[in-house]
Amino acid sequence: MSLHAEDPDPLLAFSIGPAGAVPMAAPAEPTPQPIVPAQDARREPQSAPLESLIARVERLERALDESKSQVSSLTSEVATLVGLLRDIRKLS
Prior knowledge:
The chain contains three helices and no strands. It is mainly α.
């Protein structure tokens, strides 16, 4: 006994028969538009944005290194606290 034959799921009713199928028109593809017109792209100097990106990457790398050292320090402190708790429980 099939569960689908006795109590069809109303959400799947669209797939039961071809009578409800309505052909849809193919979606129209949008025409790609340039973000910056080609004339403006040639006029802007590329060195300023590149230099700012390089500076930003360097700041992010320094921040990452600092964060790694902080995580390492915190890991060591947590390990110390866990060891202290273990010792306190043994003495109790």
